[in-house]
Design goal:
Blueprint (H helix, E strand, L loop, with lengths): L2 H8 L6 E6 L5 E7 L2 H7 L7 H9 L2 E6 L3 H15 L15 E4 L7 E4 L8 E3 L5 H14 L14 H4 L13 H35 L3 H18 L4 E2 L6 E9 L2 E10 L2 E11 L4 H16 L6 E3 L6 H8 L2 E3 L4 H43 L6 E10 L2 E11 L2 E2 L5 E4 L8 H19 L6 E5 L2 H15 L5 E6 L5 E6 L4 E3 L6 H26 L15 H11 L2 H5 L3 H5 L5 H12 L5 E2 L3
Helix pairs in contact: 4-9, 4-10, 5-8, 7-8, 9-10, 11-14, 12-13
Length: 599
């Protein structure tokens, strides 16, 4: 904890508000709210935390806070700040889910359309529907019953829909505003539960048509009735009333939360939304924030009622959402909330079970690989691959796997400096030398296993540098490919010989993933450089050397090698400040230059 944070913690107010955590670049990485700012913000810097919270705290170098007059204001402000800054640790609702809705547009001659984009316009929205097929079937039914216009752009003459009695033909005939309003009202009534009355009216008209021996019309009406029943009645669960509700339940454990939302429309449960995410605050406040952002960020239309579990601050939610929020204490509504809670708990347990299963399988693969090689379990594996195209612009890359999982922050990429032409063995020597000289110099952890992409030649070159130049004793293996550039065999020992791995085993899949990953990383780095036209000068990575200064140095010294061999006075004579000249010489003459992977 730095001095700035300590000083700010000491003067935090005992009031509600929002806080903004910032990293070394002054970027907002997390936004939260609290009933009591003093207690909440201090909690991040005291006591024990799980791994993900520790990662957040390690990045915090400063914070700001905004005091509000109420918890409702804090919730609204939090939602707006998250929308503005999109902090990387506020991962809720990053992957927006959208459901189809039916919309009656607000045009002079309105249309009925299916849309996933709910806007705050004058249109009427109905839904959400379980899927686009259900929405389209309902639209198809309504198109048969109510003749709104179908075309996006008004044509010059009537089309087939007019002759099918599914459009009034406003392109050619005058249709009054009152007529359009009546049709819209009928559609609204139908979608709000009035389909039962319409079905009753259709049955009456069907019987009248039969009595008049108009069997064709009677059959048409019968088909409409059956269509209504098939579209509107096939639902999962029902409630006695026709109220549109969203029913929320949540569960949390091990720093993760799952929220389930049941959509009840016209008294029927038609769909659910499931979201799992890590959280860093009080569970109840996180849940409340989720609901607020669910409507604000995803533009879900407000239902007539939102049902939530016990221990939810209803007043705060109602103030922020401007809709009725209710905690049911008995009956069918309470049962549905409990069902949402139960489903959330099951989803969370399933996630942990899958994680544990995957981790167990991966750890066993790492242990099995160690057994095949007769070494200790290689918890840390570092793998290398070289890349060049027809000998041009040679580069190399290193990836790191810890307990069988890639650690992308530890990936490294190398521009080959000392090797001329396509020499894979010497390239491997250079990269191994640069990597492990730096590891020894900076006291970095040595790997439990080194993997080189290639056969006996690459292995021999790498082992020679490790053993005879650096005195490093780390097991090293090679991965050979077949003619289709797929992992063929694992080589190990002195002299190298194939290790018998079952191609269906988890350990074979592990070495295959490692080889694929290091190859992908090397190729992507090589393409990145070739896309710029050529490998950049070492000068491009020196602080204080911009484009103009680089051109000046190269124009005078002709090459990076000449700059490297120059005296500091030779550089300062060109107008380069002495501290920058000194930095240039130190950088160019250091033995090991690595570039971290871009994330």
């Amino acid at each position: 904890m730095n001095s700035t944070i300590k000083e700010k913690l000491a003067v935090l107010p005992d009031q509600p508000g929002c806080y903004l955590m910032k990293d070394k670049n002054d970027t907002v990485i997390y936004v939260g709210k609290s009933k009591v700012l003093k207690n909440r913000v201090r909690s991040y810097f005291t006591g024990a935390h799980d791994g993900k919270t520790q990662r957040l705290v390690r990045e915090i170098v400063n914070f700001e806070y905004i005091v509000t007059t109420s918890e409702i204001e804090a919730l609204i402000l939090e939602m707006n700040l998250i929308k503005k800054y999109d902090p990387k640790y506020n991962v809720l609702l990053k992957d927006d889910k959208t459901y189809p809705y039916l919309k009656v547009t607000s045009e002079r001659h309105p249309r009925l359309i299916v849309t996933r984009n709910v806007k705050k316009d004058k249109g009427k929205y109905f839904g959400p529907y379980p899927n686009v097929i259900a929405a389209r079937e309902t639209k198809k039914l309504l198109d048969r019953l109510y003749p709104l216009r179908k075309c996006n752009t008004m044509p010059d003459r009537v089309c087939l829909y007019y002759h099918m009695h599914q459009c009034l033909g406003p392109c050619e005939y005058k249709v009054s505003k009152k007529t359009n309003e009546e049709i819209v009202q009928n559609i609204t009534s139908f979608l709000n539960g009035g389909h039962t009355a319409i079905k009753k009216d259709l049955k009456k008209r069907m019987l009248e048509a039969s009595e008049e021996l108009d069997f064709e019309r009677a059959k048409e009406l019968r088909d409409q009735i059956e269509h209504i029943e098939s579209v509107m009645e096939q639902q999962k669960m029902t409630m006695n009333d026709q109220v549109d509700r969203d029913i929320f339940g949540y569960s949390y454990d091990k720093g993760w939360m799952c929220v389930q939302v049941f959509f009840v429309r016209q008294g029927k449960l038609i769909e659910r939304d499931v979201t799992l995410f890590p959280f860093f605050d009080d569970p109840e406040e996180t849940f409340i924030s989720y609901i607020g952002r669910f409507y604000l960020h995803q533009n879900h239309p407000y239902p007539k009622q939102v049902l939530v579990p016990v221990a939810t601050d209803v007043d705060v939610l109602e103030g922020a959402l401007d809709t009725k929020v209710h905690i049911p204490m008995r009956g069918r509504k309470k049962e549905l909330v409990e069902l949402a809670m139960k489903n959330a708990k099951i989803s969370l347990e399933e996630k942990f079970a899958l994680i544990e299963r995957d981790e167990e399988r991966t750890i066993k693969a790492v242990e099995a690989l160690g057994n095949h090689l007769h070494i200790e379990t290689p918890h840390r594996i570092e793998a290398f691959d070289n890349s060049n195209i027809q000998g041009a612009d040679p580069v190399s890359a290193m990836v790191v796997f810890i307990d069988g999982k890639p650690q992308k922050k530890e990936y490294r990429k190398y521009k080959i400096r000392d090797v001329e032409g396509p020499d894979d063995y010497e390239t491997m020597r250079e990269v191994i030398r640069r990597r492990y000289k730096r590891v020894l110099k900076e006291g970095l952890p040595l790997p439990d296993l080194i993997v080189v992409d290639g056969g006996k030649g690459q292995m021999t070159a790498a082992l020679d540098v490790l053993e005879n130049e650096l005195g490093v004793d780390v097991p090293l293996c090679g991965l050979a490919k077949d003619d289709k550039h797929k992992t063929s065999e694992l080589l190990y020992g002195d002299p190298p010989s194939p290790i018998d791995l079952d191609r269906q085993s988890q350990e074979f899949y592990l070495v295959q993933r490692i080889q694929d990953e290091v190859h992908r990383f090397a190729i992507s780095f090589h393409r990145q450089l070739r896309g710029k036209g050529a490998i950049q000068s070492e000068l491009d990575r020196i602080p204080g050397v911009g484009q103009k200064r680089r051109r000046l140095l190269l124009r005078h010294f002709k090459s990076v090698t000449e700059i490297k061999n120059a005296e500091i006075e030779d550089i300062t004579r060109l107008g380069v400040p002495e501290p920058v000249a000194n930095t240039i010489l130190i950088h160019l003459n250091q033995d090991n230059v690595e570039e971290p992977a871009e994330e």
